[in-house]
Amino acid sequence: MEYVVYKVLNFFGIIALGVLFLTNNLIVIANFDIAPYNDDKSSSEAKNWFILKGQPGQKLTDSFRISNNSKDQLITELNTKDVQVLDDGSLTIITDQSDNQDAGNWLKLDVKKVTIGPNQYSKIPLSIQIPKDAKDGEYAAGVSVSQINPETANNVQSVVRKALRTYIQVGSDFKLRVNLNNLNIIDPKDSSFEDLKNKKPYFGRDNLLLEFEAENSGNVFGVLEVKYALKYENGEVFEGNFNTEIVPNIGKRKYYIITNQGYKVGTTEAILDYQIKPLNVDISKVKIEKQIAVSSDKLSLSQSELDSFAPAKTKAFIKPGESASSETKISDSKDNLPNWLKVVLVVVGVQVVLTGVGVWYFLYRRKKSKSV
């Protein structure tokens, strides 16, 4: 009888705590959007970020919209921040606004904290003061919106951040100058790539990787459109595409192309060509210069060498040709674990605790009955 009572309490205890956990933590998940207030959702060419144009010394004004898509009240904190470029060439916003040294200081907000009702939105004005000594070119910054949740029952406060890209085009002398070189088929025989395999679990015998270097020495953001072909010794040919944004004036960066094609015995040749275009600036107003070197590479593998190369540790959740390391994006999110995983962890934790209590209670009653 005692065992039956324990199991019933165990079952309903898990259900109750699981429901309590969900209702207490669902508000942690970010369920809001941030976008330019006047964005054109009807246009397939519309970009979900600001593109502003001005001259040195000019003040610009615009506004953006924060939409609360949940049934709960949304409390947000707003900041303007510089962007920074990661080692792989991608963009993110800096963590601390006090570290702003560039275009993040150009952006000004009238409000720093906004509360939005369920399924409502708020229009936020934004002003941009371009310095008088700003040089011609395109600059980037970000508007950071942080969702602040009240402390939960376990005294944990969650902060989820989203950012809105802000590109500012200054003057009229725009250049896009891209140099691409050092195309390389990642060689599994090269011991120097051992660390790369550990960092990139999708790199393996069944997923040939291409590596190349690219640099944008112009003054505007660009889009690099790569076409590549893999030619195997057995006559098979695979063609793919790779697109990524390329940031100006950050020096050379390495980019990796996931092909989702396996390494094969014999000689494999990779051939690459590319086109470039401005990300935001009208192409008719940009001077474009394309430079390319080493547009092909070859790799030879024997059967024994191929057999010694392990398969990928995990499949890449990316379409062939997309970059896993160099896709430019601005984000500053501190998302928690998925809710389903939280529930699983809580249920397992409760199960362990209740089992321990049950074992202790069983031993206690057993000891007490013996003493009687």
The gist of it:
This protein has helices at 2-25, 194-199, 303-307, 339-371, and strands at 32-36, 50-54, 59-68, 74-85, 91-93, 107-109, 113-116, 121-129, 137-148, 159-170, 174-185, 209-216, 222-231, 237-246, 253-258, 266-278, 286-292, 296-301. By secondary structure, the chain is of the alpha+beta class. It folds into three domains: 1-29 and 336-372; 32-172, Immunoglobulin-like, CATH 2.60.40.10; 175-307, Immunoglobulin-like (Sandwich), CATH 2.60.40.10.
Question: Topology, please?
Answer:
Layout (H helix, E strand, L loop, with lengths): L1 H24 L6 E5 L13 E5 L4 E10 L5 E12 L5 E3 L13 E3 L3 E4 L4 E9 L7 E12 L10 E12 L3 E12 L8 H6 L9 E8 L5 E10 L5 E10 L6 E6 L7 E13 L7 E7 L3 E6 L1 H5 L31 H33 L1
Parallel strand pairs: 2-10, 11-17
Antiparallel strand pairs: 1-3, 3-8, 4-5, 4-7, 4-9, 6-8, 9-10, 11-12, 12-15, 13-14, 13-16, 16-18
Structure in words:
The chain has 4 helices and 18 strands. It is flat and about 65 Å long. It has 3 domains: 1-29 and 336-372; 32-172, Immunoglobulins (Immunoglobulin-like); 175-307, Immunoglobulins (Immunoglobulin-like, Sandwich). By secondary structure, it is an alpha+beta fold.
